[in-house]
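Quarterly update, task 2.4: arginine-bound model.
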Amino acid sequence: MINFKSEIAKLVSSQVENLSQKEVEELIEIPPNFDMGDYAMPCFKLAKAFRKSPNIIAEELAGIMKENKFFEKIENAGPYVNFFINKEKLVESVLKEVFAKKEKFGSTNIGEDKNVIVEFSSPNIAKPFHIGHIRTTVIGHALYNIYKFLGFNAIAVNHLGDYGTQFGKLIVAYKEWGDRETIECNPIPELLKLYIKFHEEAEKNQDLDDQARNWFTKLENENEEAVELWKWIREVSLKEFNRVYNMLNIKFDSFAGESFYSDKMPRVLDMMEKKGILTKSQGAEIVDLEPYDMPPALIKKSDGSTLYITRDIAAAVYRKETYNFYKNIYVVGAQQNLHFQQWFKIIELLDYEWAQDCIHVPFGMVSLEEGTMSTRKGRVVFLEDVLNKAVEQTKKIIEERNPNLENKEKVAEQVGVGAVVFQELYHNRIKDYEFSWERTLSFQGETGPYVQYTHARANSVLDKAELNITDDIDYSLLVNDESVEVVRLLESLPDVVINAMEKNEPSYITRHITDIAQAFNKFYHDCPILVDDEELKKARLLLVYSVKNVIKTGLGLLGMEAPEKM
Ligand code: ARG
């Protein structure tokens, strides 16, 4: 694909002494609208060296460069040199590349197979997999796909919350009020009931908390009954989580959760001890982080039990030793900012230079209309219910609008689940939002179904045409505004994907494929495709084919399917 920016850089640096290509590239901007050109070079920074005003420099530069084969017009507007690219060249270069690469368009090997761990989802066992987890789950999955697409060896890790004092509580509750069969029929809601009951009862009866602590200690000491119960709870929980992961098409490379690190803690504690960063405080062990303006990190309680943060430190060391990661990414809510800052600092204090490769990718909170979610109070929306309802809703719509569609059930799943995923990935991840059934189940406007439908529409035109698509076409037939607008958006997809990776922000891709869908629908509306003029038809079909491929790629990166028919 022609890189117009670097063509400008070559051109300008050949005219201006002492200005390297790279320097020019850094100056180049995209004008606010295409009437002002496709690219602009501001001349303010050159004024000093030239001892002339930016306007005069721009005028002189534009004067000597004139047009060339890549640019149909180069002219100055005040202090800017504006470049108007040769549209036919643009269209030809982009569509040929898309045609050659198809769904791989935009993928590269900049990752050089380096290991990138993407840790995401990581729910707590025996607790609901709720709407609050959807964010880490789909953002993480998208990032995993994006890193892979760019040539990294991405590793999907689910750091299950399968350890901690809450298991002591669950064991007590189960022994007091639980029934194995009832739980096996409907594990998480039943375990949740027990958990809630435990908290209600514990308010009246202090003794329960002591019992729970006891059971957790037994679990740590590998008491047979405790371990058996814990294993069973983990198993039934995972079964439920896997149902959701299957719906979302998510596969993890590792489920090494918190419990996996229980025997790896002594070594880490030992390292901290040797570094002299552990201090005793009221019988507990802490790391004092006051010099870094953070509260102390509690590493080991006075009863000897370790904590969430201790396990995170042990896990990071383990991951470095096991995967020698290039980046170690944690997709975890912004409520845990301090937690990550604290333990990243501890890794640094342990003199691990890879501390800087550990990256927390935070996201905003989801609340419910009735207030914040609370597991203890039973105020939760199950993720599985959200997905199922979205699929039901899609089925209804299909029955109304297209009852003869083949594979209705499958398409309803792809579109219903896709709608939820897309909505989740549409906004900048750091934004908080309030979950609303209404918004989730309304498919109006800029939604997943809209983009998927655009893909299916492109596909149906291609089907109807019954023509072999070729890139041997007359590109001068695609220089009208509607076509060029689409092509420009296709052209920038590779950069958008790289930006999404660098900022760990999948929403760039969501927005971009929405823009492509909108531009394509305008083209579709204004430029009839299946016309009698064979050459024109061939040319327009190549554009349709390119859009179909690029949208499919984008949806795939977000973790969504692209049904051929809708
Ligand atoms: N299980 C935790 C929770 O549900 C999230 C774990 C995040 N990952 C980590 N390495 N701390 O809040």
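Highlight for this quarter: The CA atoms of residues 13 and 19 lie 5 Å apart.
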